[in-house]
Write a structure and sequence with these properties.
The structure is a homodimer. With about 300 residues, chain A is an alpha/beta fold.
Chain lengths: ~300, ~300
């Protein structure tokens, strides 16, 4: 069975672990967001790709990103010397950024680098960055344009967002991305933020159309429970961008692409509203509190 | 009292500690070799400058370079991922290279960066890279040209050296370098390798002439004891480059620049040969086995 997952960072990575546990023999492809990539300390950092990578390699940090129990000695020196210390890079993690930056500078495509790193780290699933080209999420805020990580990390997601644009929208999909959508038995939209995790993937040439043409096989899992985001600034973004701050707001936004929408039991009363959008609602527990919960959630998304 | 020291890495750094201990009120300037700088992992690394920096900051590693008790977690990842692992960069150390590279990319001169870093690390002496321009030591070997660290570290100083050249020879001296030589009460050539530590400094425009014109005040300390280098491949280089493998071979090489030559008690019998070169020989213990020994050596070099 071929499963393709569109994923942002922490939530999508954990959901993918659930899919791998629920369906150990499946051929799983994760199409990962690169819109939040950044150049930091002169290095190319791919936060979402790396979160997926480290999670699937069994070495992710307790916070859901970075390497577990990593030291931060380079950061300590950078801080002591007055350098940029607002974005945390651990020491083990830094080695990956060094290698990726060197190989990108030698004109190797990001997707080839990620495939090699994943293989060396023993990751079984295929991880595809959505594109090998430069594609960056830019937040248009009340305080002007902010690069994504500037907004999220340096400014703690505080500046009010009026719209979001993607520098490099229309970039060609990385090799395998469109095929992975076209040939999957099921396409899963992980419980990731639709505006800053899924939209940058959809901004890649052909991805939106590929999903629309397979809408019946596309299952999305809601990242909102009882009006609250499981993680990150999704509630505020729904408000700021003029959407209903609820699972229905997300369902409405994704409706053109999705056949089935998995929502939390806490939102059971909204199932009819989801159905009214032309989506088949499936109600289950969506909070991935532990391995059993994420496997159960994946099982529902895979079998519903 | 103004003291200016020309220095390579470990030996020069330790000798400078001795000078600072022997003459606590002196105004000390260290002119450091940048010929062994390299770009590694996309970062600008200045091994000799950093050895001086870390040594004077009291945080140098036991081997004489790097940061004491530094971790090597980034290196472990680079190695795991098949990246270049032949040059050891510790994690704390890496932070300095990141900051330097970023600031160089922003067009700040190396000398200004080093001055700021030294101040932040609480270094009292002034550390001047010999030049802010690119100047690189290139080893012409039986196996072709090798960048200095390629020869020394990656190839373990094994390829036979036929000659040495300096890419960027004639580069302008960094601000303060020529003045530090011209105005010093005493100029000290640290017990550093003349070919790969001192010569790249002498390749900077005006440095050789500045020393020649102050020859009477220039004191060199021999890096050779009883025909053996205290550290590094100096013995082999003397052989390969056609010099006598002894303290006299070094004295002869440095004679145009030096008024006084400090040689080890083990070479006492060669003092007359040194004198015959037109240098004033001073015999003392030159092995810097501990703090007392390096202070005693510095005291001799400062008062002779």
């Amino acid at each position: 069975m071929r499963i393709t997952i569109l994923s942002g960072g922490v939530g999508g990575a954990r959901f993918t672990l659930g899919v791998l546990a629920a369906l150990p023999d499946a051929e799983v492809t994760v199409i990962a967001n690169v819109g939040d990539d950044l150049e930091h300390w002169g290095l190319h950092v791919s936060p979402d790709v790396d979160t997926v990578l480290y999670t699937l390699a069994g070495r992710v940090g307790a916070a859901g990103w970075g390497v577990r129990d990593d030291s931060r000695h380079a950061l300590a020196t950078v801080r002591e010397l007055g350098g940029a210390d607002w974005f945390i890079l651990g020491d083990h993690d830094l080695g990956l950024h060094v290698v990726r930056t060197q190989r990108l500078a030698a004109s190797e495509p990001l997707s080839a680098i990620v495939a090699d790193v994943a293989a060396r780290m023993g990751v079984g699933a295929r991880i595809l960055p959505a594109t090998d080209a430069r594609l960056r999420t830019v937040m248009m805020t009340d305080e002007g344009e902010l690069a994504f990580q500037d907004w999220l990390v340096r400014r703690r997601a505080e500046p009010v967002v009026r719209s979001i644009r993607f520098d490099g929208a229309g970039a060609p999909a990385a090799p395998g991305v469109l095929e992975a959508i076209a040939t999957a038995d099921r396409v899963l939209l992980a419980p990731s933020n639709p505006f800053i995790s899924l939209d940058p993937i959809l901004a890649v040439a052909g991805v939106r159309e590929a999903l629309e043409s397979r809408r019946a096989t596309v299952v999305a899992v809601s990242p909102i429970i009882a009006g609250r985001a499981v993680k990150g600034p999704l509630g505020e973004l729904l408000d700021w961008l003029g959407h209903e701050r609820s699972t229905v707001g997300v369902a409405r936004y994704l409706a053109p692409l999705v056949g089935t929408f998995v929502l939390d039991a806490a939102d059971r009363a909204r199932a009819a509203d989801v159905r009214a959008l032309g989506l088949r609602p499936v109600v289950t527990d969506t909070l991935m509190a532990d391995a059993a919960a994420r496997t159960a959630l994946a099982h529902v998304a895979l079998t519903t």
